Amino acid sequence: MVDFKKIADGVREFMLDGTSWERGHDKFIKKYYLSHEVRSGDEVIPVAKAPGLRPSLDQFRNHGIRLVPYEERMRLLFGDRHVDMNMRGCPVGQSITAIYPGFVWEIDWTWSDNVAVAKGSRLAIGRLTLYGIADPFDGYVYGIYACLGNASVEEAGQAINQATEDKVALCARYGIKIEPSMWRHGILPARLRFDQGELDSYKSAGFATSLGVQLEACPTGRGDLKGTIESIFRQVSETLRKMDGGTSGHRERLKENPKLTAIFDLDQLQKLLFLAVIQFNHRIRKRQAMTPGMVADGVLPVPAQIQEWALARGLYRDADPMRVRVGTLPSKRATVTKQGIKIEGLNYKVPTFVPGSTNGIDANDWLMRARDECWDVEVAQIPNTVDYILLRYRPPGEALIELRCDLADEHEGYLGLPWGMYRALKA
Q1: 297-315 as b/e, with b when 16 or more CB fall inside 10 Å?
Q2: Looking only at Cα atoms, what is the longest distance across the chain?
Q3: HEC states along 133-192?
Q4: For the chain (length 427 residues), average pLDDT per consecutive 10?
Q5: Sign of torsion, CA 86 91 93 99?
């Protein structure tokens, strides 16, 4: 008769550190089913009981699998760290990590699986950096930001700024006409969840202090803690790979070079991503967690409908566009010269703000004063365009304001370029 307790104890005792079932069975027999020992000179040879009086290898393996839970056996074989990082089971749904809609956002970046070309030509400029922001409760995507630069605090801040700005005006700049209900804006979460990347830095402190958002860093290798945005990136990658210029990032033999087949520039790829996100926000989620109140009100498991339901009950925080820009776009120093406001070799027009007032700005007055002496001012650069900068001006005794400064006419050849491409051309 098979002693199940001995088998379970043997599995827990001998199936350690990658031990095979055969070796574990040998150790198990020597301890629990030893018949006698035979001495041959100085060597002692253990002799096991007859096959009918001891568990076979198949019995030891089959009953061990049944008696000892899978997770416990994996931890015995590979250790807690390996199991937690690579073999952790998925939760029932990502919604369980959020208390209610709008409580937490997930932000992450990835390389686009599509090669972009320069605007107005077929010159390949490489794969883009994609930032995504989504709500794990309902899977609603608030922002999808494409840029030429590498992952950085500045680009992450621009992604947050895009997630909160007016989506009707944003889409209109790319030739897309939408209604406000098709892609909501102007809200902020209570928490922002990210991995230990560019946001794990003192430079991101402004996100927390200016926006009142609690930053929540995930441990390294725990992509399941922000699985919503990871799964969205997977679907975006599958779509981009099917288009002209699509690539997995690895060169493959007997396949066309994506740099030769690429046809979409940065603005065109951004437009396609916007259209995909709008459609994505109106899909039916098969594994969406629904509260009793949602069910009673007849809300379908559609991210857009869940958001409308939450908005009607005041579950979202309002976002002040000024505070978001100040918190997410770092300030830079520019110089007021007789040619205008100069930064990184580009001149920008001086804005006019309440001319004639002691607290105002007269463009002609600033340019005349700059002939005698230049001075520094505080500005904010928009990473995805050199067309304008924001002058951060604080009148004495008043709140900070941002004034738009357009690119000077002598530099109109750079219009439409992101800062990353402009720096690459000047390098």
Answers
A1: eebebbbbbbbebbeeeeb
A2: 112
A3: EECCCCCCEEEEEEECCCCCHHHHHHHHHHHHCCHHHHHHCCCCCCCHHHCCCCEECCEE
A4: 86 87 89 84 81 89 90 87 72 68 90 87 86 92 88 85 90 92 89 80 72 83 81 89 82 78 90 94 88 91 92 87 78 91 94 78 90 92 85 83 90 85 80
A5: negative
